[in-house]
Amino acid sequence: MRGARHARWAACAAAAALAATACGGGSDSGGSETGAVLSSSWTDPQNPLEPSNTNEVQGGKVLDMIFRGLKRYDPKTGAAGDMLAEKIETSDSRNFTITIKDGWTFSNGEKVTAKSFVDAWNYGASLKHHQKNAYFFAYIEGYDQVHPVSGKQSANAMTGLKVIDDRTFTVKLSQKFSSFPDTLGYNAFVPLPQAFYDDHAGWLKKPVGNGPYAVESYTKGSQMALKKWDGYPGPDKAQNDGVTLKVYTDNNTAYTDLMAGNLDLADDVPAAQLGNVRSDLGDRYLNTPAGITQTLAFPFHDKNWNKPGSDKVRKGLSRAIDREQITETIFRKTRTPATDWTSPVLGAEGGYKEGLCGEWCEYDPAEAKKLIAQGGGLPGGQIKITYNADSGSHKLWVDAVCNSINNALDKDNACVGNPFGTFADFRNQTTKQKVSGPFRAGWQMDYPLIQNFLQPLYYTNASSNDGKWSDKEFDKLVDQANAETDSAKAIALFQQAEEVVRDNMAAIPLWYQNGSAGWSDRLSNVALNPFSVPVYNEIKVG
Q: How far is the C-alpha of 520 from the C-alpha of 261, rounded, in Å?
């Protein structure tokens, strides 16, 4: 990376293993939109679209269209490249000087400056703003003052952030974090305009960013209309006139609309259609590896799941799940049984270690039954797997998982599904610790580093640690890995941390997920990035 002297081990290793792109033919017929505007399936995000408060996929899709940050992850390789960053310099992996490029503005005409970043990061870190991604700023010096573990914050700005001039600011971390610059493509780190603070309610209704699209309108439960921003100064300008994100509460309905010509793009092909999607769409369908994993998480805030012996119950449940059969019969090989807690897209050089889960991810009904009994049995005699019902695929696999567990335990109702209507409803239950049993915990990587598959999910009080698991040894190993500048040593430390997750079965790995999409014959140049999100700005219409 230009001008940087920090260690770049993680992103460089991951980039070599990442690739996800495909194209299809186009014509002038079909689809629900006219002109060069395309329609795409979507689900209402959990929260209003504040970048530092959005940590789920649907909101992230929009942020990726309307914002650009210091870094951007290459849509084909996942490598972290400079976007607004002209240079990021450090000599010690703790003190960074960041210079931003000149000529960038927000879509409302405001200039993007160093202050745009510093103010946004301070806002995101502040305890009083209750931002879900606040944790991403935890390594910046002074975070503990603006976001203390307990009590009121004693400052409104982190001491580690200083504006030098319009195009330069400095960042001082509380400890070495060698891959810090490569995390800066994540949406929590994007700049915000002054309008965000001057009329916050107005901004939430119609967010203003600095990306290739601008929000035109949003009706919750119906659709969001985004239009191409003609004044966008970046190199990745939109190749279409806009995108209409249409809200669906069932991806089977989205697929039906696609086939009927009422939708241009469905980026989540339902499991029920996988057997016929090739014959339906031909080369207008893609299925490609992505940095997505599916796990069963547990409510460690509930004493029934956080007591001596409960790790044996979790390991027993893991061994009761026939991953091979489920991925073959339900998902038609668009999923691969998981053998660790990261993703194969990282590659061995990036930290993926096939088989790290060992015997605990191997199907063995007899051992499963024995382990669960040794651990004291299922809490209350039954588990209820909580999931969102607005994706038809989830009910299918949850029912299959429960059937596998029930067969292993020789009990018809040892496991049952516990559906919630929408993704937002489901997230509100899990993030507010309102569930008392296992719950679906899909993870789409924020950036292609092994650290991102572990720290946000399992570090004490991390942003996406919804089950509130905590382990001092895991935390210590992650801190050591982040401070390590040698690639091999850092990855080895992260893998040791992952072994702690395994030994405690902090979550049950299920399968690695491919990204899938189908589109109408109006579209061409359709691709999914390594995060399984359509590269909307590259799609052509007509």
A: 7
470 Rama class: left (phi>0) / alpha (psi -120 to 50) / beta: beta
From CA 75, how far away is CA 80, in angstroms rounded? Answer: 10
Asked whether 293 and 453 are in contact (CB, 8 A), the reply is: yes
Strands 540-541 and 161-165: unpaired
End-to-end CA distance of the chain: 37
Q: What is the 3-state secondary structure (H, E, C) of 275-342?
A: CCHHHHHHHHEEEEEEEEEEEEECCCCCHHHCCCCHHHHHHHHHHCCCHHHHHHHCCCCCEEECCCCC
Q: Where are the beta strands (DSSP E) in 114-222?
A: 161-165, 168-172, 213-219
> Residue 328 corresponds to which tokens in the numbers above?
């073959």
Pairwise CA distance, residues 409 & 21, whole Å = 43
Q: What 3-state DSSP class applies to 541?
A: strand
Q: Which residues does residue 415 pair with via DSSP β-bridges, in sequence order? A: 383
C-alpha–C-alpha distance, residues 147 and 139, integer Å: 12
Residue 387 and residue 397 in contact, taking contact as beta carbons nearer than 8 Å = no
DSSP code per residue over 422-467: SHHHHHHHHHTT---S-EEEEEE-SSSSHHHHHHHHHSTT-TT-TT
Name the DSSP letter for residue 474: H
Distance of CA 152 to the CA centre of its chain: 30
Backbone angles phi, psi at 523, to 5 degrees: -105, 155
- 464's CB contacts (< 8 A; 6+ apart) are 55, 443, 456, 457
| Dihedral sign, Cα of residue 329, residue 335, residue 338, residue 341 | negative
- pLDDT by 10-residue block (mean), the chain, 542 residues: 29 37 33 75 93 92 97 92 97 96 98 98 97 93 96 97 98 92 95 98 97 97 97 97 96 96 94 91 93 96 93 98 95 91 92 97 98 96 92 88 96 93 86 90 89 94 91 96 88 97 98 95 96 96 94
As a three-state string, the secondary structure of 379-391 is HHHCEEEEEECCC
Dihedral of alpha carbons 490, 75, 447, 533, sign: negative
User: pTM to 2 decimals?
Assistant: 0.80
Residue 395 burial class via C-beta count within 10 angstroms: exposed 0-12, middle 13-18, buried 19 and up: middle
Do residues 67 and 537 make contact, with C-beta atoms less than 8 angstroms apart?
no
Give dist(CA 78, CA 188) in Å, integer.
Answer: 17
Task: Confirm if 257 and 30 have CB atoms less than 8 A apart.
Answer: no
DSSP structure string for 69-98:
-SEEE-TTT--EEESSEEEEEESSSSEEEE
